[in-house]
Amino acid sequence: MGRNLPLFQMPAPNATSRFSDRADNYVHYRPGYPREVLQTLQAECGLAPAHVVADIASGTGIWTRMLLQNGNRVFGVEPNPEMRQAGERLLADFANFTSVAGTAEATTLPDHSCDFVTAAQAAHWFDRQRSRGEFIRILKPGGWLALLWNERITDSTPFLLDYENLLLTYGTDYEEVRHERTTSAVNQFFDPAPFQERVFSMQQQFDYAGLEGRLLSSSYAPGPEHPKHAPMLRELRRIFDAHAAAGRVAFAYHTRLYFGRLS
């Protein structure tokens, strides 16, 4: 099954390091995932608490936490030290969590040790061919791969249209790395095996401080040392003041889940 969506970009050369100075904002302002994602994996793939999951590019553990709360033993494989340390700190209370310094292409996990491989908000950074081979290596026969993204809706409200224009104007490499351009080649991870897609709706609301934190959690938002940083924040403030209702603005998302067995 394929998707007639925009071009799947090649992974950025700095995919591992580009979130190093974003971990704190990532923790506080990135969205979670709808409960329906977990419910779908339970109903369609038989995900049960006894299953072992490798969560690839687990970051600060937003999706990992949902798996741990489901009772799963989870190996959180994360190459970025700052993101991995944030995840270790935030998930320290879960005895069934193991933090792993590894990549999608080289997880360091044993052969056939996992029932599921998952990647949330991350697979667009992977080398598709090499990571697919690694996932097959670490999965048990008949194991499942699940890829998910929160895809920000860019044009459903005047605020979201203005926010999109801000990113196009000030983002350092926004058009090249935005993950909404990646789902057209999800089949590269599964082919020749079939896969399925589910789409769910979700929303986040922010005051101005939250909106700024959400923007600065993005890898393409210029940091404080960049000449675009200050004018970007001035424009963000203008957009917020123009569109806020009761002191808040809303991000709308489609959460896209792709799942199938690897063979």
Give me a quick take on this structure.
This protein has about 260 residues and is α/β, with parallel strands linked by helices. It has helices spanning about 25-30, 35-45, 60-70, 80-90, 130-140, 160-170, 175, 185-190, 210-215, 230-245; strands at about 50-55, 75, 95-100, 115-120, 140-150, 195-205, 250-260.
Helix run count: 10
Compute the separation of the termini in Å: 15 Å
Q: Radius of gyration, rounded?
A: 18 Å
Order of neighbouring strands in the sheet with most strands: 3-2-1-4-5-7-6
Instruction: Provide the β-strand percentage band.
Output: 15-25%
Could you state the order of secondary-structure elements as H and E?
Answer: HHEHEHEEHEHHHEHHE
Name the shape in a single word: elongated
Model regions low in confidence, pLDDT < 50 over at least 5 residues = 1-22
Query: What's the rounded overall pLDDT mean?
Result: 88
Please give the largest β-sheet.
7 strands, mixed
Question: How helical, in percent, are the residues?
Answer: 25-40%
- Summing up helix and strand content along with how strands pair, one would put the structural category as alpha/beta
Q: What is the total tally of β strands?
A: 7
